[in-house]
Amino acid sequence: MTHDIRLLAPALATWLTAATTLSLPSALTYGLAAAAALTSLYLLTRPNHPAAAGGGTPPRSPSSSRQRSAGAAGSAPMRDLLNRVRDGGGGSGRRVVAGVVLACAAASACGVALRVTAVAGGPVRELARAERTATAEAVVTGDPRGKPRPGRQMIIIRARAEAVRRMKVRVPVLLIASDPRWLRLVPSQRVRLRGRFVPPKGHGLLAAVVIVRGPPTVLGPPSTLQRAAEHVRASLRAAVDRLPPDRRGVLPGMVVGDTSRLDPELAEDFRTAGLTHLLVVSGANLAIVVGAVLGLCRLAGLGRRRAPPVAVLAVLAFVIVARPEPSVLRAAVMGVIGILALFTGRERQGLPALAAAVLILVLIDPELARSYGFALSVLATAGLLVLAPPWRERLRRRLPGPLADALAVAAAAEVAVAPVLVMLSGEVGVVSVLANLLAAPAVAPATLLGALGAATALVSLPVARLIVWPAGLAVGWIIRVARTAAALPYATVPWTGGALGATALLAAGAVAVLILRSRRLRLVAAAAMAGVLTAVVAMRAMAPGWPPPGWQMVACDVGQGDALVLSAGPGQAVVVDTGPDPAPVDGCLRRLGVKDVPLLVFTHPHADHINGTSGVRRHRTVHGVLTTPAASGREARYTTGLRTRHAEPGQEWRVGDLTLSILAPPTATRALTPKDDGTTINNASIVLVARRPGFSALLAGDIETEVQRALEAAVPRVQVLKVPHHGSHTQEPRFLAAARASIALISVGEHNDYGHPSSSTLALLRNLHVQVHRTDQEGDIAIVRTNAGVTAITRH
């Protein structure tokens, strides 16, 4: 199959120009736009000389001469340009293509420059440069998104500033709040807020980031369309209320992109299995809904002329309900492209339609040029249009038609987006194609019945609940596929991230294609793979596995947070903190073979220490929880059904031959409140000493210098020190020295925003002759008892 690629170069030029010029000063971008426009004008208006190209002057018929003379004189250059674009051959055709490409680049650069100029000046950017606090009015333009952060929940809201200091403005801003009342807002609501304006990081089209203080002051209701959309979304949530928790979290995400009830652990399983695209509004979901509408139109006897307007109305309704955000608009355009290509039976027209969509969307919203979501959508659609048809034809020679179609679609989409996914995650999904194949039969029933249930709930909630019940069964199958695939060994394979990783993956793909096309190379590759497999099996048989025999303690790599595991016997362990997310700590405990947790310790109620608790409780028995007496109640939602006690200085806990001694905080410590700052909560951490024959460790939570000084005299000599507060600069040298540890563990996330661990802390530990191990560089770190004392063994 041949594809029309004439629009490909203009679309890529528009995309690349926007992505590049977003980082440039507006004056330079204006200059580039002017240069590209002038060059384009020269190329497009340069006279054509067919004789010079060797083609001679084509004969003209009398009728064509009469039409030319009868037309307006100004139409001749345009007709000549259109003829050259249509013919596309020779030097003239190449000039026209180059001219069109430069014209698109000029338009893209000019659009970026205008927007950068708008956000780079004015009172909002002036406040941001000075980092001043001010009162402003803004209109919410996107759904508020909650994101756990240490000590509090961070809520991110996209908005458009409308007034600041009694001056009217109209620039995009990003609001960062912590009050949960911000989560109740709906796009199009106008609010008054007070906050500190700071410059946005990096280059983009934001005028400022506003750190909001307190709740919003709502100045008006949402627009009529947004009220209607929220009513539909709320009706769908009500319709799925009687489904099991996991299913009522996934189904609204599949239908309208509402993931407010989605369990983070389940979301991580979907990501590992390569099924995340099912949880967001995508072209595939939209295609299912609109395809059903077109099918109903055919049953109703509507012809080709009357069915498309109905389909367009369905698209508009879907976009409104799923929120008209850039990602939803992108999915709508891509979905319509795929449906039109399928509906007309002219798949070869899909690629120019895709290129046109890219060109239009980037011109409208230049920030899409740097959006990974946009790149994934474009690449997936391109894979379906370019790769899937020939693969389908080849697979049909050996497989049944439906299976060949499903396999070709899943493989084409996965191959197309793999380089971008590698850039983002540094992993290559191994099971994603199989997971998508298994989940595919349930996607359409779940989406269609969910959409029907949402519409029916507006009229009759009991009937809607009956409709979504079979949709819940379909979603249950998808959830089972996601969890099973994510639990498989090597579901994802580590790979170099960033641009280097993407380039390496593309090179590996090119080598694989060459191998598949040559019988001799296939034989060589098979022999090499057999040799490598034999070597890996031999090394695996001879090398010690994970965990190392006799492990006493493991610092789990959970990112920017703490999760420590103390061995308490076969299959048993005491867990101290659980990290920020459920999946990493669950994986760490699974690798350690821990099935029973006699005691779970929360050192203090910060998100990076307690938000992963559901991962600890997954398929394990937790007997009790120990918390700081200064608990704020934040941890209560994680300890439902568990016996909870407060730690007291001098208290000892024994689990087998493991003894835990509590050093801090004092029992008289007051309860924390949401208004307490991070330092107050950090200093309320439980500090404990873990001992067993031949092993001792000091686990210091996140205590800072004030409490470290107070505990200096009480610190016993230990072999292992868990460095307080992820190795931050708030360390008391005499506290660290008092432990006289030979090994220091720093639990920290790679490339974190806090600068942990501090260079001064690392230098201090080196001066104390302590061996430092970091989870961000070494992964899970196990402490093993040896004849000479203890040593650290890393999983990597």
From TrEMBL:
Protein name as annotated: ComEC/Rec2 family competence protein
Matches recorded under InterPro entries: ComA-like_MBL, ComEC_N, Competence_DNA_uptake, Metallo-B-lactamas, RibonucZ/Hydroxyglut_hydro
UniProt subcellular location: Cell membrane
Domain Metallo-beta-lactamase as annotated: residue spans: 560-751
Main location: membrane
Compositionally skewed regions (Low complexity) per UniProt: 62-77
Spans through the membrane: 274-294, 306-322, 328-343, 350-366, 372-391, 403-425, 437-459, 466-483, 495-516, 523-543
Membrane topology reported for the UniProt record: Multi-pass membrane protein
Keywords: Cell membrane, Membrane, Transmembrane, Transmembrane helix
Domain of life: Bacteria
Region (Disordered) residue spans: 50-91
